[in-house]
Amino acid sequence: MTMSRRSTTGCTACKKRRKKCDEGKPQCQRCLTSRIPCSYDFIEYPSSVAHLVQRTRPAPRSVAELLASLSRDLASSNSSNSALPVSPNLSETVDVLSPIHFASHQQSFSGLSSSRLPPGLLQWVTGVSRDTPTQPTSVTSQVAWSFHDDCEDYDPEGIHAVLCTAPTMHRNLKENTLPFVLQCYAQWAIVSVFEPLKIAHTMKEQVVQQFSSEDTRTRCILMANVMEMFGRQLVVDETRLPIVTHLTSEVRASCSSFIALWPSESLVPGLDKQNAMRILDSTLEVRIMTLQIYTQPMAACIQLMEEAAPVFRRACSEPPGQALNLPNILLESGLNLRHYASVDVMTSTLTGRPTFFKYYVPFSLELCEQILQSQENSGLRWLHGVPDQFIIMIAWINSLCEIPGASTDLGLISRIERDLPQITIAVGHQGDSALCIGRMAVQECWRYSMFIYLYMALCGANASDPRVVRAQKGFMRLVKGIKPGRNPDAFLVSPMIIAGIATRKERDRDVLRERVLNLREYTTPHTSGNDAWMQVEEVWARTRVEGRVAVWSDLRIACFTISGK
């Protein structure tokens, strides 16, 4: 498929964001739609060369010095390896390459530390030819291009402008790999992260740091290859599934090796915790766990969490046998420690399984306000869309479920009913206004699902309880008021699973089913996303056959039926 050349007379804003410009005057249509300043900065030629075609100035390369430095580092660290020549087509391109274009030039990536990789994965970081075709099959190709055509320009918040850099257009230079990696991460963030703009700058710094290290560069490029495909097609086919398998195998191996070592706390105070944090940060990072959800069964994801649990525990400050202080973890810990704890709580909520650890949660509205005020520097709402205050409340409800008499304590239940509506949720005002409205709706859907969880999980109510019915109706009213689409539907799936257990009317079930299964990644069999929704279908089918309404324990049975866990 022939790629169209970009305009050489586009406006400054479009060039900076690497977007096609319609060259409208005085403002182009894209800038008008995005409500950003629009201007044209034409190159001034001397009068003696007036025959040259008029052009606007290219976008500034804000990280030119960084790329130059990285080029020197790569050249010095890989001087023994000869660089493969860059494709002539690549050298003639004058703008950031799309992920699809980069995919056709992956043979230019060489000189990377990949000695420990299985031979089947060397093709993704070196010039080794592969047996499988680089392009999808005809049917898949049509779907992929259709999705890409729709989403190529869909970047209303300018994530590419923040993350991406222009490749150096010279032959035989290896630093073009970094722009490829950043482009892949940007596309993945747009389709997978709730608030990508919130973490775009931090993500770029982390990627550049990982790429500059021999120890992490290969893994960074491997993840980028998976992100490139998922960002375009919302699925990962058999050509790149081995990458995810390899990455998760590395996590398991690192965790096993660390667990086998005797804790070093007796030798140097705090050393064992530091080593555990290093393992979490270097292997069990957010991106690997997120990619696993879309590529591997629920059982595999639960197994990985289970194998990493001892490492997570040794990274926490509490002495053995003591419950973990969840607010402290979410407020003060590193990203991957926070992520493990949040995923532990959420996995319990969406499967009916117990959490891997007991958490201490001194819940109060003051604590919720503290979390709200600190979300600029902590929390994980930006990733999945669930407010961190609700993570805290879920863990608190889980702990109350183990206290005799808590489920019938009317004063306690009334307090939670009063507190839930008063929890303030952060509302971002930056970026696209339609996205802001959708994000607000997602978080309010979580509030309704929290009421359902309170009544069904703690109080033991069934789906026909008036309190559950009222919360479920509010949830459905909000969902039906949101225009269907990938965003926000991709972030509504988790609260839809909770609400789905309480949904009895077939027309409401059809609405939820359609919203979830219109998301391509949730239609792929034997992936965690599809397995999670199949739990709801299993509950509906069983209660229909047995002629009764659902109770919360049905979710645990469905999880075991679907995943064996």
TrEMBL record:
Keyword field contains RNA-binding: no
Statement: the UniProt record of this protein carries the keyword Nucleus: yes
A family per Pfam: Zn_clus
UniProt keywords, alphabetically: Nucleus
Principal subcellular localization: nucleus
A Gene Ontology cellular-component term: nucleus
Segments forming domain Zn(2)-C6 fungal-type: 10-40
Gene Ontology terms, MF aspect: DNA-binding transcription factor activity, RNA polymerase II-specific; zinc ion binding
UniProt cross-references to SUPFAM superfamilies, sorted A to Z: Zn2/Cys6 DNA-binding domain
Record's subcellular location: Nucleus
Domain of life: Eukaryota
Name of this chain's protein: Zn(2)-C6 fungal-type domain-containing protein
Species: Rhizoctonia solani
Phylogenetic classification of the source organism: Eukaryota, Fungi, Dikarya, Basidiomycota, Agaricomycotina
